[in-house]
Amino acid sequence: METSNRRSSRVQLAFPIRVRGMSNEHKFFDEKTQTFLVGKYGFMSRLQNLVNLEAEIHVLNLKNEAAGTFRVIWVNTQIREGFHQLGVEVLEAPDDMWGIYFPPVEPSTVGLAGQVWLACKSCHQKELGSVPQAELEHLDVGVLVARQCEKCKATTTWEYTMPAGAEGAAATPSDEGKKKGDKRAQARANLKLTVKLVREQKGIIVEDVCKTVDVSHIGAYFLTSQNYQVGEIVKVVMPYKKDGVGKPVPARVIRTDARPETSQRAVAIQLDTAISAPELGPELAEAELAARKKAQVELRTKGRVPLKLPIKVTRQVYGMNLDDVAETVNISRTGAYFQSSQNYTLGEQVQVILPFKKGEQFIPAIGRIIRMDPLPGSPLRGVAVQIGSDKK
């Protein structure tokens, strides 16, 4: 799961697959499932059977009958909706197993990763490791990772754990990380603002009104008595005023830190879209918005794969489901761009099946419309959909 090992781009695609191997109970299993993130050298999926870390599995792509052998590099031992999530890397498989060309990762995108605390199960030491953003949202308590341990001088089993602050140590980046420069700190403002977070817990809407430690136009760091999970999706009103009207902004929890001296925890969130608050100052706003737009343009242009695939987009119009079956112009790890005659709305939430095949049943992914482009001389519009932005 090291960022430096990422050798090709990944795209969010649901390929039907058949997986065979040995479970952690040493029993043979033969299970049909589907991918939800695919790359040239591996993919992410989920299984009803729990497999061991480093286990080898045989995978058959049911769309083209291509098969290969893969190795499990991380697995969630806890069940989610009856399944265990896992990530695998290729050991032996044909180059065209997925029928897609994957461009190599651009050097400028190698740093697109998050930092999480991992603990070696052999020597119990903890390290702040880099994890690709594609896998960050799937980390939770119970996730095991195959990783080189310098102390053990071998590849050992590591588990996702709480930040070092949970046991009294400072929950701050390592000295090595500080030498590289903490870009987040440069964009933060030490302001105590009231924020309101709205979460869904077991079907119940829960509100959390608390104070920030510092904020930026793309995130906040605040104290709370509630327990948040890394990768959790929330809605945020910032700044929040009682009886005031504030538009909630979707956000994702990217870090949680224990505060040993109090009963509270510190939580960092990243907003889906930048906000403008007068309290933060116009200079900071302009700098952050410019940097964000530049990053979005770079990601769009460098992460796209020109590929024509059938896509089905389902939206709600006046309480009714309306299906839109089209063909993609290009796709990326986080979304797709297609042409449509329908009138979408920016920010509209939709359900997406990619690739789509009539008569087959797939679990749709949650998507959001992020761009619409008029096509001169054509009744169609170019539509960009971000997939998985609201995934819980």
Description of the molecule:
By secondary structure, the chain is mainly β. Helices cover 9% and strands 46% of the residues. The protein is built from 4 helices and 23 strands. The strands form 3 sheets. A 6-stranded antiparallel β-barrel has the order 2-3-4-7-6-5. A 6-stranded antiparallel β-barrel has the order 12-13-14-17-16-15. A 6-stranded antiparallel beta barrel has the order 18-19-20-23-22-21. The N terminus is likely disordered.
Furnish the topology, listing elements before pairings.
Elements: E1 10-11, E2 16-22, E3 28-39, E4 42-47, E5 56-61, E6 67-76, E7 84-92, E8 113-120, E9 126-132, H1 133-136, E10 143-149, E11 154-160, H2 175-180, H3 183-186, E12 194-201, E13 204-216, E14 219-224, E15 233-237, E16 249-258, E17 265-271, H4 282-302, E18 310-317, E19 320-332, E20 335-340, E21 349-353, E22 365-374, E23 381-387
Antiparallel strand pairs: 1-3, 2-3, 2-5, 3-4, 4-7, 5-6, 6-7, 6-10, 8-9, 8-11, 10-11, 12-13, 12-15, 13-14, 14-17, 15-16, 16-17, 18-19, 18-21, 19-20, 20-23, 21-22, 22-23
